[in-house]
Structures are given as C-alpha cells and as structure tokens.
Design brief:
The chain is mostly helical and about 180 residues long. About 85% of the residues lie in helices and about 0% in strands.
Amino acid sequence: MKQNTFWRDASKAGATIGVVGIITSLLAMLVPSIAFVANLINFVATIYLLFYFTRKRAALYANEGFSYSMSIGFMAGSAIFAGIIMGAYSIVANNFLFTEQVEETLQTLTATYTSMGTIDSNTLDSALEVSRMYLFSPIPLLLSNIFSHLLSFCFYGLFIAIGTKREADIFESTQNTEEED
C-alpha cells in the first residue's frame, strides 16, 4: 500500500513546492525591489517543505525503516512535479505575462556585451537568437525546469535525508514472534 502512494505523495509535495515557487516568482517579477527577499523566501520554503513532506513519508515506514536513498528518491520524485509546475509557469510567464521584461533583459545583456567589446557582433547575434529560442520555447523551458529542480532537490536531499531517514523498529520483529508463540 505504501508503494502505491509514492507518486501521489511526491506529486502533492511537488505541487505544493511548485505553487510556492510560482507565488514568489510572481512577487519578484511584479515588485523587482523585493526580488532578493522573495527568492530567499522561496529557498527557505523549499527546504522546509522538502523536509516536511519527506518526514511525513518516512513516518509511513516506521516499522521497516526509511533509508537515506528512499528519502532522496522521494525528493527526486517531488522535483519532477515541481519542475513541471514551474516549467508550465515559465512558459506562460515568458510568452504572455512578462514578455517585455524578458526582452528588456536580453537587450540589456546585448548592450553590455557590445560595450565590453569582448564578443564580435556575429557571435553576439547568434547567441541572442539562441537565447530567444530558449526563453520563448515551451519544451526547453519545461525540460530545463525539471532538470534544475532535480539537481537542486537532490542536492538539498543530501542533507535533508540525514534528518528524515528512519531505522527499522528493532522491537517490532520480536513482538511479532512473541505474539505468534
């Protein structure tokens, strides 16, 4: 039964973390002066929610134990769902909500590189074209969000799993054998 709930629990954790990410990202885009605080809130909330949902999942395995690798595996499953949600948000945000801001950022980067003189104009034009393709294409945005969430959640998981893993209950096996006698 516990194995049947893995994807449901991972999707619930990923969806919650994804929604928090969307809210803080929207806040950062709408009020750029508090972008640092919004990103910090997102970072802390992500770590807390990963710990919370993984600990909740580990509680289901009180008798047989919840290993370090099971903790990281659960966080990786959650990362897939959070990446899908954030990827969908990025597609909508870049193509419909904040298109002007993304274009302004690209123009600022172009002006900066041009003024530095370190990159010739042909290379800069091709880099700008690739950047536009990436920032406004749905598939690369979705895949990069999934991949980046996998990397970050698994990195956080290296530390979070230390606190969420559970050893098997050593008294459970002796209680079962005594009840059978």
